[in-house]
Amino acid sequence: MLLGIILVISASVMWGLSNILLKRSIGKGMSPESANAVQTGFSALFMVAIWIFTICSGFIAFSIPDFWPLIYLLAGTLIGLALGTTIYLHGLKLVDASLASPLSSTSPFFVILMATLFLGENINAFLLLGALSVFSGIILLGRREGKKSSRRKGIFLVSIAPVFWAMTIIFYRLALKYMDIYTANAIRMSALGLTMCIYVRFKGIKCFPERSALYDSALAGLFNYVLGGTVFLFGLTMIGASRASALSSGTPFFTMLFASMFLKERIKSSYLYGGALVVFGLILISLS
């Protein structure tokens, strides 16, 4: 249990850093679709290489996934990581990273609801109080009074993305009951990278900003999917969808820290109070 909690929180740290890299990449002229295509394509190469290595080393045996687990895996990937992440990146282009991340971190509420309805997972008082504390912290962290960058369209886009991400977690939870994580990673990232590259090519979207933007997007993929996504999936199998999703809500807190360090965004007092609520919520959830 403890290892699963540590893994999910570690994923939150990596996702926070990925948010900053993506914001910086988009700020240098790369379109949201192109940024997603670069990070997923780069990640796919890593995931497939890791998968081949684990098979050749005898760590896992080669196997062809059953039909329905494969459908669950592909559905979660296309709904959440292709559609949901692209929607989020369009919103991120319009608002600050320190606002987008908190607003997009409400997926635990959707996951808890879906996990209860479809996976039969139990909810206790610690989990509910922890989720409430995390949500309250998110509200404080997301306050950006008087900022022109907080456009309605951007706020709307980053706010609806968590619904798609919640579906992804539920589908992944179902799929991982029947396949190992290395195989799942190779399949989902290959499908995602191929889908985004085809979409960018079909839409005729330009993908040639300054070279540093390409590096930022590729590095974001490393933290987002290769490292963060892998440790999150391990944690997900250990502690369940509801608890894993709730713990991952710490991402905005880490995004705030990295935004202050690398994007020079000013941390307001509401951010400190909100961060304290997020940490308190994570403690409650870990006790549930």
Runs in which pLDDT lies below 50 for 5 or more consecutive residues are none
Order of helices and strands: HHHHHHHHHHHH
The biggest beta sheet is recorded as: none
Beta-sheet strand percentage?
Answer: under 5%
Q: In the residues, how many domains can be counted?
A: 1
Count of helical regions: 12
What structural category characterises the helix and strand content?
mainly alpha
Integer-rounded radius of gyration: 18 Å
**Mass-distribution shape:** globular
| Overall pLDDT confidence | 83
Distance between the termini: 11 Å
Helix content range of the residues, please?
Answer: over 70%
Give the number of DSSP strands: 0
Provide the fold topology:
Elements: H1 2-27, H2 32-56, H3 67-94, H4 97-103, H5 107-119, H6 125-141, H7 152-175, H8 181-203, H9 211-239, H10 241-247, H11 251-262, H12 269-287
Question: What can be said about this structure in brief?
Answer:
The chain has 288 residues and is an all-alpha fold. The protein has helices at residues 2-27, 32-56, 67-94, 97-103, 107-119, 125-141, 152-175, 181-203, 211-239, 241-247, 251-262, 269-287.
Structural summary, described in words:
The chain is built from 12 helices and no strands. The protein is an all-alpha fold. The protein has one domain. α1 packs across α11, α6 (125-141) runs antiparallel to α12 (269-287) and α8 packs antiparallel against α9. The protein is globular, with a radius of gyration of 18 Å. The N and C termini lie close together (11 Å). The mean pLDDT is 83.
